[in-house]
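Escalated from tier 1: nicotinamide-adenine-dinucleotide holo job.
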Amino acid sequence: MNARFTGQTIIVTGAVGGIGSAIVEALLAEGGRVGLVDFNAQAGQAYEKELQKRGHDVCFVPTDVSHFEQCQAAYDRITRELGAATVLVNNVGISPKTNGRALKVWEMPPAEWNNVVSVNLNSVFYMTHLATPHMVQARQGRVINMSSVAGRAYCDIVAAHYAATKAGLIGLTRHWAAELGEHQVTVNALAPGRISTPLLKSVPQEINDAVAAVTALRRLGTPEEVADACLFFASDQARFVTGQVLDVAGGWLMT
Ligand SMILES: NC(=O)c1ccc[n+]([C@@H]2O[C@H](COP(=O)([O-])OP(=O)(O)OC[C@H]3O[C@@H](n4cnc5c(N)ncnc54)[C@H](O)[C@@H]3O)[C@@H](O)[C@H]2O)c1
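Tier 2 regenerated the structure:
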């Protein structure tokens, strides 16, 4: 078994969700200590207990990442309990629909727009702002941002807030890669296609089947397949890779 993360603390946001928990499992399997950030307190506490029973070093902090003070409290508690983090996975993301449909610009309540910007984009600034001082000082760090192919190409399944925030993450990734490079901190993004997680249930099954039919690999992806790509960026194998966006999409949209 590889153990690329022995002795390292990694923070994962949206850690209780489909892709987040697959990333957590993969990191733990390779020896990492993992700080779990998610606002689903009940599921998070149960997951933390289960992981601790399995002998893993984890710390769950119920957090609404759209609030800076909550991100600060989560970061402080995790680093106090598990040690300073050298890897940050900004995985959290939401893609709201109304009756399975993405709202058009004239239909979208500003409150929904603001919420998606807060969760998908502002939280990534908050967490990276908190985590990078230690990485810079340690001259070691990895930031991985969870974008989407919908941030790279037009995709009619999602609404504009989702596309805009996921495209925004690509801008942040390149900008921060340039800012942090001289400190030996890398910043990369993943752009998953359609992955089988609870997030997909926001649209009717036919829509997901139709996407699978037009991918090169003719199927949806699994959370574990996204986790594999995430661990590459998080690991020493990717030490000379920064400012990049990797599609994990089975050949869907091929941006
Ligand atoms: N599933 C896909 O097909 C797909 C495709 C492309 C990109 N992505 C991206 O991958 C990431 C993970 O998606 P997923 O499919 O695992 O989603 P998911 O819905 O399974 O998990 C999202 C997690 O984020 C948590 N969360 C939501 N709002 C939060 C908040 N305000 N504060 C803290 N936690 C919050 C939820 O409780 C949940 O555990 C997201 O950024 C998503 O945009 C997913």
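DSSP finds seven helices and seven strands in the chain.
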